[in-house]
Amino acid sequence: MLNILFKRSTVNVAKKTTLPLRTFAVHTKFTKEHEWIKYDDETMEGQFGITQHAANELGDIVFVDLPFEGDTFAPGDAIGAVESVKTSAQIYTPVDVEILGNNQEIEATPELVNQSPMEDGWITKIKVTSLDNAKDLLSEEEYQKFLKTLE
Amino acid sequence: MFNRFVTRSTPKGVRFFSSTNLSRTALFDWHAAQGGKNVPFAGYELPVQYKAGLMKEHLHCRENSSLFDVSHMGQLRIHGKDRTEFIERITVLDTQTLKTGEGSLSLITNENGGIKDDTVITTNEDHIYMVVNAACKEKDIAHMNKVLDDEFSNKDVHLELIDDRALIAVQGPKTQGVLEQIFETSLKDQFFMNSTVLRIPKLDTEVIATRCGYTGEDGFEISVLNDKAADLADLLTSIKSSEGNSIVAPAGLGARDSLRLEAGLCLYGNEMNEDISPVEAILQWTITKRRKKEGGFIGHEGYMAKRKKGVVKEKRCCFVYEGRGAPAREGAEVVDNEGKTIGKVCSGGYGPSVGKNIGMAYVKNKYIKAGTEFQVKVRGRSYPVKVTRFPLTKPGYYRG
């Protein structure tokens, strides 16, 4: 995320509550730019979104600029942008991805990203095409620690 | 040497500096206690929003009453018997249209007729009161001192920088009711753009209260002594509705910007600058027939030349998005329906009260008519917009 204007001390990232129904693992990884990706290691498919911290910093979100289905992006590419009343921030993928579709709900109800950034307010459906060039992916614990350093 | 023309209200200029070299206003601690999130703005550390957030703060102002700290703006007094001649030299103001205690928006012009600053000027019995933009105040004072030195050295004009007073804007439809409780007097006879000195009995202090603002709503700007400013803010937020809620809530710079944009009010640095004249900015309404004809203000010749047909190529217009999309903000490209560049956005964002993206742009003359359709570009995507007359919300200006 770019252009975050100021820091916020309270952080409330939703905990992953879904239990694995299958034998392979669903990974949730975070970036220092406050994005997250979730994917399972069999299909490599999952979702991409922004964290609660990012949503809080941006304030009231009014529009999400979404990528197109079929687009492919390399680590560090901007795949879209989140616009709030206050400011805008581009969102960057930390890994190679292909876009499988977007969250239609947030087109009509962008405030979902504020309300539930890790669940209902996910942004785009992705397939991780390679983890080879992944940059600085953090586990949830590492991300929480990183957030503490911003306070 | 120019300093001999400026006196300060306090012997030593009172400025509140932080460690980051940014100035602080008298309400700095008050903002912190209210959960304000500070940003640097025009050399000051000021809250961009409070806990409620920009959207709620904006809507609160349209429905209730909001408090804005605008102490960063420059407050000046012009004294001396030749002050009228001086103000008509440095601004386009027509003092003949103002009764004592009445104010007006006016423009400080440069030699070419460009806009040096916009300012609200009130004429009083023994002085002129003037509020200028924070980012321009140093420049304005230097400019005024130069004019005083070059043209008024044998005349009776004296400039005073008011630095012992904060400026608190209280805006919104419920403002009058709140302020009547604070001033303990009726305000029904004080109309839009009128300024009076009023007493706040509870604080044992006098303030300059001008019925004006920057939100499109009814409201007042209150010039209060620095050491009473936080008490006034507390007093304002202590007034409760019948449901027991504070009627006045603090609002930050973010809401101030979205409110003024919906109201179609220009912001210096965005819609106005030294290269833009009142002709391009569609601000010629600030210049009366007499001032156009008689001139006398700096840059009159340049301004009159720009009024000639075909000289000005681009003008300001206001637009509203036809659908959803990323809001085009300052600097975004404006294109016609064939994709050809026709101008640039100067202000833009989401309008919380209208629920749409809105903005202002400088575009080629033929595109400024209401109803004209063109597109604005954000990150390579084009969004259709329609030229619309602002304000978008019903103005609340109180005219009795």
UniProtKB/TrEMBL annotation, chain A:
The organism sits in which domain of life? Eukaryota
Checking InterPro entries in the record gives:
Biotin_lipoyl (IPR000089), GCV_H (IPR002930), GCV_H/Fam206 (IPR033753), GCV_H_sub (IPR017453), Single_hybrid_motif (IPR011053)
Record key words, sorted: Lipoyl, Mitochondrion, Transit peptide
Annotated GO biological process: glycine decarboxylation via glycine cleavage system; protein lipoylation
Entry note: cofactor: Binds 1 lipoyl cofactor covalently.
User: Where is this protein found?
Assistant: Mitochondrion
Q: What family does this chain come from, according to its entry?
A: Belongs to the GcvH family.
The role this protein plays is: The H protein shuttles the methylamine group of glycine from the P protein to the T protein.
Oligomeric form and interacting partners:
The glycine cleavage system is composed of four proteins: P, T, L and H.
State the protein's name. Glycine cleavage system H protein
User: From what organism does this protein derive?
Assistant: Euplotes crassus
TrEMBL record, chain B:
Q: Which InterPro entries match?
A: GcvT, GcvT/YgfZ/DmdA, GcvT/YgfZ_C, GcvT_C, GCVT_N, TrmE/GcvT-like
**Binding-site positions, substrate:** E221
Q: Record keywords: Electron transport included?
A: no
Where this protein primarily resides, as one coarse class? mitochondrion
Q: Any idea where the Aminomethyltransferase C-terminal domain is?
A: 315-392
Report which reactions are catalysed by this protein: N(6)-[(R)-S(8)-aminomethyldihydrolipoyl]-L-lysyl-[protein] + (6S)-5,6,7,8-tetrahydrofolate = N(6)-[(R)-dihydrolipoyl]-L-lysyl-[protein] + (6R)-5,10-methylene-5,6,7,8-tetrahydrofolate + NH4(+)
Compartments it resides in: Mitochondrion
What keywords sit in the KW lines?
Answer: Aminotransferase, Mitochondrion, Transferase, Transit peptide
Q: Which family does it belong to?
A: Belongs to the GcvT family.
Report the protein's function. The glycine cleavage system catalyzes the degradation of glycine.
Q: Spell out the subunit comment.
A: The glycine cleavage system is composed of four proteins: P, T, L and H.
Q: What is this protein's name? A: Aminomethyltransferase
- Species for this entry: Euplotes crassus
